[in-house]
Specification:
globular; two-stranded antiparallel sheet; 47% helix; alpha+beta; Lysozyme
Length: 195
Amino acid sequence: MAAIETDRPRLRKGTLAALVGLTSAGLLLTSIPGEESGRKVDVTIAVDGTATVRHVSGQQYLQAYRDIAGIPTACDGLTKGIRMGQRYSEAQCAAMLEAELVRHADGVMRCTPGLALTIPGRDRARAAAISLAYNIGVGAWCGSTAARRINAGQIREGCDAMLAWDKARVDGALRAVRGLTFRRQRERALCLQDA
């Protein structure tokens, strides 16, 4: 018996779209640059799931800098392997952004079956969870009250629990940071669209 082709696109394995779906991938690839560097981008996702991110406006951090916690950072909040003095091209930043989003999304999807692609109506909650994990780390997300509540089917409560992650270590002390408070509020609002 021959396999029947459908009109659904065949997403290339390893792409963000294949891992989290087209809607969540589009949301993440546009929101993370806005959250991390305040810049606006245009995103195109091809039928195979490959994404093209094009800088439109705003600051683009092509040279490493220290973030509020003193961590070497570049592009759109990237910290893995970043050293002070490094410079990147726009293409390198776009490729590293998608690779990091794939890495974070993979971890979130593994520990949060409540966000599985097979569950309809979870696109925005999935994007909000991955955005939070991109900022706090996959391990922190997986151990969070937000993840536990979403896995229990308590989407609204899981979204609300995202608000707790608004602190950073600044000058040796854990403090609420206004920018993180606003980011958590935006992630919660996005998440609540699926509650």
